[in-house]
Amino acid sequence: KAGVTQTPRYLIKTRGQQVTLSCSPISGHRSVSWYQQTPGQGLQFLFEYFSETQRNKGNFPGRFSGRQFSNSRSEMNVSTLELGDSALYLCASSRMTDRLAGEGETQYFGPGTRLLVL
Amino acid sequence: GQQVMQIPQYQHVQEGEDFTTYCNSSTTLSNIQWYKQRPGGHPVFLIQLVKSGEVKKQKRLTFQFGEAKKNSSLHITATQTTDVGTYFCAANSSNDYKLSFGAGTTVTVRA
Questions:
Q1: A60 — contact with chain B (CB < 8 Å)?
Q2: Residue A44: exposed, middle, or buried by beta-carbon count in 10 A (0-12, 13-18, 19+)?
Q3: Is-cis flag, bond preceding B43, omega within 30?
């Protein structure tokens, strides 16, 4: 089974621009989550989508947005880029788990998109 | 939301030695997951623990979930250079399906 794919892998933008990142989940996975990873802040949760609906949201400003399509593919958008947005953006997909049994959804991460804002 | 605290932040280990990394929460957790990220790579799922006091082993790695379900540990025996990377714990609390990651323990190995 193919893993999670993310495009592009590398991106250089300037302040004020916007960027759209794409993620294709593992076939059959309906949940897609996005994370921002920086050396200083670690893995920060951005948002999660399930069946085209945002199910969870982290503490990021409104400049960060996302969406999910009917085929479970997801995009995230960052508008008005700032220098501090330079990071590795990771997408992860997961399949349904038995939450009543206390199980959490295992995250299958993609290789990430490394964004540099100049 | 709930947070998981991970210690130590860095672990420098002599090859062949053992070490342990810890994950602690102030709230009761529904589950705990562990991930490993190699340098330049992405996090890869290692294991999930759900039951109080649960212990699972993967070769030289031993994972434990505390009796109170507020802490967890990862113990690696006879460290090898292939163990280099950052180990993250991640958890859901009982009323929060959002996965919270610890800051990670970055492991380096001296040959």
A1: no
A2: middle
A3: no
